[in-house]
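#dry-run=false #mode=assembly
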Amino acid sequence: MAVANIQVSETPLVLYALRRADDALILGHRLSEWCGHAPMLEEDMALSNIALDLIGQARELYGYAAKVEGKDNDEDKLAYLRDVRQYRNLLLVEQPNGDFAQTLVRQFFYSAFTDLYWRAMMNSRDATLAAIAAKSEKESAYHLRHASEWIIRLGDGTAESHARAQGAIEHLWAFTGEMFAVDDGERSLIDAGIAVDPATLRGRWLKTLSDVANEATLALPQNDWMQQGGRSGRHSEHLGHLLSELQSMQRIFPGLTW
Amino acid sequence: MVTVLDSELRQRAWDAVASVVDPEIPVLTIADLGVLRDVVLDGDQVEVAITPTYSGCPAMNMIALEIELALERAGFHQPKVRTVLSPAWTTDWMSEEGRRKLRAYGIAPPQASSSRRALFGEQAVACPQCGSDKTELLSEFGSTSCKALWRCMSCREPFDYFKCH
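#status=ok
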């Protein structure tokens, strides 16, 4: 049943687009797992809608990565025919949904970052990335509002919801550092005005988190030890399981179309 | 040289394309929505530029197909549809006519987008059924990417609100 993995020539710009595409696809897929299982109908629709936005963003970014690479790859091959070690997403987004609090805390950490990140990327010297940013920025702002309201409701809710939200924050905190990490290739894109230096966003990201956490009566961890690896393909055991589901049709029936 | 004939031809192409409706909100044409950005005529070849409402909006593929069909029916062969992302679509591009049609269809039209960034900002959305402003948000997300679910406290009817974006 196997179909061979594609090879990708990861120049700095290809890799840059691919990493952000992988973030959006994997988180979008995780959220889609709630479809039909969310605690209430409104949230079922909310999480599916957010998943749709993220998968839409992933498609634009994959399309651009393929175009820049200029080989035989396209958005579908990039999504369906790379194995775990070729995926470049943040460890944060591949973490399992857990309970509702864990899903929303993961979403909150990510959206608080992408809200700032895409707004800054609207000034990228790369016209395509700037255009994708202008689209994604609006969606991220909405996602952040949704997640923030839930963090407050859970944190300032019952003893049970508070404990779950606090537990999720502590569990996921160590995966947030990777959002601010930069390697040599990305540094060259930052210097060229194509990419944004994420370090410049960290202060405002923390401010968003602490404002919401305060209102939610939740505490942010002081611990600053951070786990990394996703950006270079060293993933947790969870991603392989996710991909086996996401890719199963294209692996069994190569080139399948609807 | 642009001739009268060319501008008539372009108008005919524009009219054909502008009549295509959103498959999810069939009272709105893509011109009302602001999704239709441009129609360019090169000889007898037509190229249409559209912009997506939301990144993942599944209606876009359908809209592109409907545009091609509309142009073929109007006698323009092998038209091209191009997606442009920039400038990003905003509900501010929705026409007054579009807003009126939405309200008549039972969907509250989008407000001006200036308040969008207010993280916990209060919004006042008038009920499209009875006009009351005693309404409340039920869910930030609705049946499609572009809508939220509200309810009217006066006439007790739930309604869709076309989110400002």
